[in-house]
Amino acid sequence: MDSAMKVMQQETRLRTAGGLTVTDITDEVTAFVRETGIQDGIACVYSPHTTCCVRVNELESGFLEDFGNLLRKLVPHDSYYAHDDWDRRTENICPEDMDQGNGHSHCMAMLLGTAGESIPIREGELQLGTWQRVLFIELDRPRDRRWLVQVVGN
After folding, report:
1. For 6-153, which CATH class?
2. What does the angle CA 19 – CA 28 – CA 127 come to, to the nearest 5 degrees?
3. What pLDDT, in 10s, does the model give residues 69-100?
């Protein structure tokens, strides 16, 4: 029996529709975990962007509607954000952001917590609950994005 620890990583690119869109990436993560052959370990699924994230939750239309409404109520798009005040802001400036501010997207991302999730693997399968799915959540305008999954185990 080979008990050597393995580390494998995959990057996936996607174009989002923008505006609080949720993409179910569970099947892609599951397929990669199976492809690695790792039986026991952990899958870390991560978004290297500041205005989107990866979360584990239920993919159910009523919940997604409630979740979107809650975020919009807590962090309205049309409020003042210093991040979007071009008379004040001098750091990390992306010219395309000047056309359409995204301060609200950054605030939403901070409320949602980390940019990724860690999911245990047992007997080669993700240990997700009955209704849990791995969700890529876009909080900004339509953008080219990527997400990473790194599987560690044996």
Report:
1. mainly beta
2. 105
3. 999 999 999 999 999 998 998 888 877 777 88
